[in-house]
Amino acid sequence: MDIRHFLLVLTGGALILSCSSGQRIGRLDDDALLDTLEKSTIRYFTDFADPATGLARERDNDRNGNIVTIGGSGFGVMAIIAGASRGYYPEAEGVARLDRIVTSLEKLERFHGAWAHWYDADSGKPFSFSQFDDGGDLVETAFMVQGLLTAREWLKPRDPALSSRCDRLWNEVEWDWYTRGTDSLYWHWSKNHGWKMNHRIKGYDETLITYVLAASSPTHPITRECYEASYKTSDYYYNGKEYYGITLPLGMEYGGPLFFCHYSFLGLDPRGLTDGTTDYFERNRAHTLIHRAYAMENPKRHKGFGKDFWGFTSSDDPDVGYSSHHPMTPDENGTVSPTAAISSIVYTPEESMEVIRKLWEMPGMWGPYGFYDAVNPSREKSVVDHYLAIDQGPEAVMIENYRSGLLWTLFMGCQEIKDGLKKLGFYYKTTDNQ
């Protein structure tokens, strides 16, 4: 291979080489490898952000135009804070990026305080996620608000005025209006279609943060009864079964896609969090280890599965595009999504590092924003060589939480969140997160 195809990179005191195939040559210690991965992944939300709005593009191969995502941008807010705190760029640059995002959020059309799932960044108008989903999306809004509250706390000593603007956006979300006067939260509302989608928010899945925020709101709160009567009445809330000798207290069979362990817990600290019945850190660790054990058993005999190659969640794949891939379903087609194991590093540090090292050594898996979205070794074109915001964001945030706990500390510093958790019957078994 022509030497011009090689790039010398000095990271954390260790010399590594990368070639045009994406293969990594050389070995880093764990901390240097995590630093390289976190720094590269954060670039998706800085270098690849829409320059006008600062919001995160939905994906880097979008056929619909310049589409930005609200939930993914909420993850990106937290990633930007992590990058500034790590010194990957000047702190003032991080503040300026947050200012651009907040300014954009203030201008975008909202629906009783909630943002749409997607917007066309060029026109500023909502872009339909599906036929009737062209208005307020309360879950995507929750992911954004999780980021905004984290930013509010980080900005207090740095830019108090911008911190107050984050607070104002949070207070303007009408969580109670999205109950429709019932005992449930509803996911969508549209000016054009009203409540046609009629989607109650029920768990156990990625939507726990929506109920926590709705209960915590100082301006438009919901009651504990709403949480008990809706979220906890899903037919896949309680589980209690064993898989590979591992008990799973909550969730669907085999736990479902691993993003259920990530999206709500980017700011909400699961360590010691309990409702008196379930320890949420242990629940998420069990879910993650079940995925690993499934890969080790490999019932469908997919190529490559094992203790250092696992992790199943919603991502793209070489066959059908975006799919859930979780164990013991038809969607599990041999695709491994790096975000699944990487974002679980807070629950399974040693096991996740094994996957990270395996991916690091795989040809073609590394690109400008870290590991590509997915890989399926059974396919001729095995690497799905593009990126999604909602996959990259949890990687960067959870790596930072593993390394320092920064985003957990900031989000849990919000008094409203402490009050809302208490209202819903949650508490911490230690005082570390109080």
Name the CATH class: Mainly Alpha
**Per CATH, what is the topology?**
Glycosyltransferase
The ordered H/E elements are: EEEHEHHEEEHHEHHEEEHHHEEEEHHHE
Roughly how many Å is the radius of gyration?
Answer: 21 Å
Give the total of domains: 1
Unreliable segments (pLDDT under 50, ≥5 consecutive)?
1-23
**How many helix segments?**
13
The CATH H-level superfamily is Glycoside hydrolase 144 (GH144)
* Spatial separation of the terminal alpha carbons: 56 Å
Shape descriptor: globular
Structural class by SSE content:
alpha+beta
Summed over residues and divided by their number, the pLDDT gives a mean of 93
CATH architecture: Alpha/alpha barrel
Which percent band covers the strand fraction? 5-15%
Sketch the major β-sheet: 3 strands, antiparallel
Which strand order does the major sheet show? 1-2-3
In helices, the fraction of residues equals 25-40%
Secondary structure tally: strands: 16
List the helices and strands and how they pair.
Layout: E1 7-11, E2 14-18, E3 24-25, H1 30-46, E4 67-69, H2 70-86, H3 91-107, E5 118-120, E6 126-127, E7 136-137, H4 138-155, H5 160-171, E8 188-189, H6 208-216, H7 224-229, E9 238-243, E10 246-250, E11 273-274, H8 280-297, H9 338-342, H10 349-361, E12 366-367, E13 370-371, E14 374-375, E15 383-384, H11 389-403, H12 406-412, H13 415-424, E16 427-428
Antiparallel strand pairs: 1-2, 2-3, 4-5, 5-6, 7-8, 9-10, 11-16, 12-13, 14-15
Helix pairs in contact: 1-2, 1-11, 2-3, 2-4, 2-11, 3-5, 4-5, 4-12, 6-13
